[in-house]
Specification:
N-utilizing Substance Protein B Homolog, Chain A, about 0% strand
Length: about 150
Amino acid sequence: MADSGAVAAAGSRREGRERLLGLLYEAEVKGQTMAEVIEALPLPLKGYAGQLAPALSTGVGEIDARIEDASHHWKLARMPAVDRALLRMATFELAERPDIPPGAIISEAVELAAEYSTDASSKFVNGVLARLAAELRPGVEIPDLGFDIDD
């Protein structure tokens, strides 16, 4: 039986990722930085989104470079805005949150891509993140979710 604390943490991470996805998308659509979007919020950002958002307000250039390297022939500008936001968030998690299994990060990003982006986004996001996970978490087994960026 699953630990109820672990299940609650996973649920709150899911909600935080969804909230953060919306904020990253908003920043891009408005042409603002994450810091500007966060500053304009009527209430302080809490929970998992509040933990990740400040880090995604800075250092996005390095994250974007990693994504472009892993996306093989796809420039960030060609990607749907939702995919860019998901890839930035998940890349940060893969690099900076070793306490979260890469399979959990990837599967949540794939699920969010399926829900909020294009029909092909799940496969694309999975492929890019699998490559990034292999680079950022060497030696850690990455589950095959059945999607491949090169198909």
